């Protein structure tokens, strides 16, 4: 994964505190776009980026997915989605994410372990799953690359 991060254009959907974007930038990502609708989380994201001196490397979009995704222009090399615990990625979101993902990009989807997303989301196919207790991380790539 590290080789995919260096120089990457990152999209962080359901950004929460922004920690996935911050970690990506600290490991060499070029730019991060964060999508979040919660006011408290937005304030925390701004503070975290201010504290880490990474203000010039991020764009913050207030809104919810999929509506906010429609306004974005890709491609993104690395897309993270960590929705609230019981929420899942809709088919509409998966299609938009597929369109925003770069040819050799990776979509990283964190979800509860009791939920098993389909092998295919939009035009992406799961290439790996890693379980961490109650959470699972599923990695997707565009099917045309497989």
UniProtKB/TrEMBL annotation:
Database matches in CDD domains: AdoMet_MTases
A GO term for molecular function: nucleic acid binding
Keyword Transferase appears in the UniProt entry: yes
Transferase in keyword set: yes
Gene3D superfamilies in the cross-refs: Vaccinia Virus protein VP39
Protein name listed in UniProt: 16S rRNA (Guanine(966)-N(2))-methyltransferase RsmD
Keyword vocabulary terms for this entry: Methyltransferase, Transferase
GO biological process assignments: rRNA methylation
Species of origin: marine metagenome
InterPro entries documented for this protein: DNA_methylase_N6_adenine_CS, RNA_MeTrfase_RsmD, SAM-dependent_MTases_sf
Pfam families per the UniProt record, alphabetical: Cons_hypoth95
